[in-house]
Design a protein that fits this description.
There is one protein chain. It contains 13 helices and 22 strands. Strands 7, 8, 14, 15, 16, 17, 18, 19 and 22 form a 9-stranded mixed β-sheet that branches. It has about 400 residues and is of the alpha+beta class. The protein is globular, with a radius of gyration of 21 Å. It has 2 domains: about 5-55 and about 65-80 and about 115-185 and about 285-400, FAD/NAD(P)-binding domain (3-Layer(bba) Sandwich); about 80-115 and about 190-280, D-Amino Acid Oxidase, Chain A, domain 2. The chain binds flavin-adenine dinucleotide (FAD). Flavin-adenine dinucleotide (FAD) binds near residues 38, 176, 235, 305 and 309.
């Protein structure tokens, strides 16, 4: 029989969401003991994981900024954050263009773009400087509900963890959730996303672009200037059968095809970084909570990457969950109880369902007569998250089934 380790909260998965939640909760409740369990090895120099190759530009909304600010992370992130001053939505082959600008009264821009690897290394660095523990090379292989706690059997056979609450945030292909029998509905969309950074011949002026074409969506986010070069982060979705040709194309051919689809509104594309591509699946968990466990992040809802909303939605979930844990803890109530977790579920489900449904399959946006889909088509997917008043109205529409 191995040794037991006891924590208030155990978070499974040290991705963007798991680590954010750990830091948000720690800021609120410094006395809670928190452990993060990560299956990957620590590839380290000292205590800090070396930066990864995640060159994606992650668009963060104003709400996300606020949440990260409260968690004490924004001051560092802001240094490399590129403000989004306007959002430009267009439709290849159709004249209509929607443009949403930051209003002169706005103190803040519409959102910010931060490179994935910078966001991840900032989160991990803050984690390593806190008293939150992190165990690398560890997985949870079973969870046994006991009175007032859960016993987590780890892949390290000599160690069991005892916790009041387990937060499962090990990503869209969560082994932990599937081992515990959570039912997650996933959908392969027959599309691939190609990701790269593109060099521009002129300044991007803080414009985030979304361009709908017959064969997919092109999203370009403004990045900070690097060594005097102007860059944008590209996510380009294509039907899987067409993507391969682009993945294998020379840089020159790739840029020609991109320019033909996107036009010249963001200048001339002069260079492209190494490209990454992956098959797009979306998923949504039918259950969000169980006694002493809750799903957070991509395991709960894996959204279409072009929507640029997965992390934003998860940060709002994380902030709400941290608040619920904090309130219960301060009132000496059990924060792992089903009743407490169910209240959190009720608070978040509606927004999660609507955003997941709306961004789940972009194809209907091209053909639908449905009001809400046309609204999305015309205003673009980013706008929903980056213009809070639109999200509020969208959610209101979803509740009441009527236009605002
Ligand atoms: C191309 C692209 C662009 C995007 N752009 C945006 C954007 O602009 N704005 C936005 O808001 N969102 C965006 N997103 C979505 C965002 O990246 C995700 O929502 C977010 O990264 C999800 O984080 P996560 O921590 O839930 O999952 P993951 O990042 O998958 O992290 C899961 C972690 O769990 C670990 N793990 C896996 N299995 C186990 C196990 N069994 N035990 C322990 N640990 C385990 C993994 O190693 C990993 O560290 C984008 C996504 C893509 C793909």
């Amino acid at each position: 029989m191995g040794r037991d380790f006891a924590f208030d909260v155990v978070i499974v998965g040290a991705g963007l969401v798991g680590v954010s939640f750990a830091l948000i909760l720690k800021k609120k409740e410094p006395d809670l003991s928190i452990l993060v369990v990560e299956s990957n090895k620590l590839i380290s120099s000292g205590k800090i994981a070396v930066p990864d190759s995640d060159i994606r530009g992650i668009a963060l909304s104003r709400d996300s900024k606020k949440i990260l600010q409260i968690a004490g992370l924004w001051t560092v992130l802001e240094k490399s954050a590129t403000p989004i001053e306007s959002i430009h939505v267009s439709d290849k082959g159709h004249p209509g263009i929607a443009r949403l600008n930051r209003s002169p009264d706005d103190i803040d821009p519409l959102g910010y773009v931060v490179e994935g690897r910078y966001l991840r290394s900032t989160l991990r660095k803050n984690l390593s400087q806190s008293d939150i523990q992190i165990w690398y090379s560890t997985e949870i292989i079973d969870a046994l509900i006991e009175k007032d706690r859960v016993r987590l059997v780890t892949s390290n056979t000599k160690t069991d963890i005892i916790a009041k609450l387990m937060v499962i945030s090990d990503g869209a292909y969560s082994k932990t959730a599937s081992k515990l029998g959570f039912c997650i509905k996933s959908k392969a969309l027959g599309q691939k996303a190609i990701i790269a950074n593109v060099t521009l011949d002129r300044k991007h002026r803080g414009i985030a672009y979304e361009r709908f074409t017959q064969s997919g969506v092109v999203a370009m986010l403004p990045l900070s200037t690097s060594m005097g070069q102007f860059k944008a982060s590209l996510v380009w979705t294509r039907p899987s059968e067409c993507a391969l040709r682009l993945e294998k194309a020379t840089d020159g051919l790739f840029l020609d095809e991109l320019q033909a689809q996107f036009g010249y509104r963001n200048g001339i594309f002069t260079d492209v970084s190494a490209r990454a591509s992956f098959v797009i699946t979306t998923s949504f968990s039918e259950e969000m909570i169980r006694a002493r466990s809750v799903l957070l992040g991509n395991v709960a809802h894996n959204l279409h990457p072009v929507a640029g909303q997965g992390l934003n939605l998860s940060l709002r979930d994380a902030a709400k969950l941290a608040e619920a844990v904090s309130l219960a803890s301060n009132a000496n109530r059990d924060f792992g109880s089903v009743s407490m977790l169910d209240q959190y579920r009720k608070d978040r489900l509606h927004e999660q369902q609507l955003i997941a449904a709306f961004t789940g399959n972009l194809q209907p946006l091209f053909s639908s007569k449905n009001f809400i889909l046309r609204l999305g088509r015309n205003l673009g997917l980013f706008s929903l998250d980056f213009v809070p008043v639109l999200r509020e109205k969208f959610l209101h529409f979803g509740i009441n089934g009527r236009a605002f």
